[in-house]
Design a protein that fits this description.
217 residues; alpha/beta; TIM Barrel; two-stranded antiparallel ribbon; globular
Length: 217
């Protein structure tokens, strides 16, 4: 289904969102068009790509005004040919941790996408448990996108067996149509909407990141 940027922005505003992440698989193609439409209505847009690695799917998140030309340089660097951008089956080159470092070196942050979802969440891939544990401990990983909210406290407290590192947890809509926008939001307490503020919230999530059932109104 073809969706216009105006439809996405309208859905986000109806839901009351202040910011959204616009993401595609191994691509930043829609970022500039979304920015152009969203800016007129005051909606902030974080440019994101969902990278396919041997260890699963991971979100590379960049600051609001990051030039798409520079973002595409990351895709060049990790070996995604232009003809495969937008294709979830296209896998980046190299070790997953090295890919994380490339994202961080370019000023971005990395979130493990839908970690419990088969087959592309990192917990559900065919990689060994030891590899998954090492990836979870990686210093370049900033947060976990969970799909089982009941486990949030365990991840945040480092109580998952074999995964002792504590992480901020978020959830996401993974929207593929306007009516799915905002279906699983999370809230961040920050003075200004920016990647740096988001990074700070991920480092100090207690009291700064909330799910809908924790927010009044």
């Amino acid at each position: 289904m073809f969706v216009k940027p105006e439809q996405i922005v309208e859905a986000a505003l109806v839901f009351g969102l202040d910011a959204i992440g616009i993401s595609d698989h191994n691509s930043f193609e829609a970022v500039d068009e979304m920015r152009k439409v969203a800016t007129k209505d005051g909606l902030k847009v974080f440019p994101i790509t969902e990278l396919t690695t041997r260890s699963g799917h991971f979100l590379a998140v960049f600051d609001l005004d990051s030039p798409v030309k520079r973002l595409n340089e990351l895709l060049d660097e990790v070996g995604i040919p232009r003809e495969h951008r937008g294709d979830a089956a296209a896998q980046v080159d190299g070790e997953t941790e090295d890919v994380f470092k490339k994202v961080v070196d370019r000023g971005g942050l990395v979130i493990a996408a839908h970690i419990e979802r088969w087959p592309s969440g990192f917990l559900e891939t065919k990689e060994s448990r030891a590899s998954k544990m090492a990836l979870h401990a990686c210093p370049y990983l900033s947060a976990l996108e969970i799909t089982v909210p009941q486990d949030r406290q365990k991840w945040e407290n480092g109580e998952m067996r074999g995964y002792p590192k504590k992480y901020a947890c978020i959830q996401g809509s993974d929207a593929h149509s306007p009516n799915e926008v905002g279906r699983r939001p999370f809230y961040v307490d920050m003075e200004t909407i920016s990647l740096e503020a988001l990074r700070t919230a991920f480092q100090n999530w207690t009291g700064n990141i909330a799910f809908p059932d924790e927010v009044d109104g």
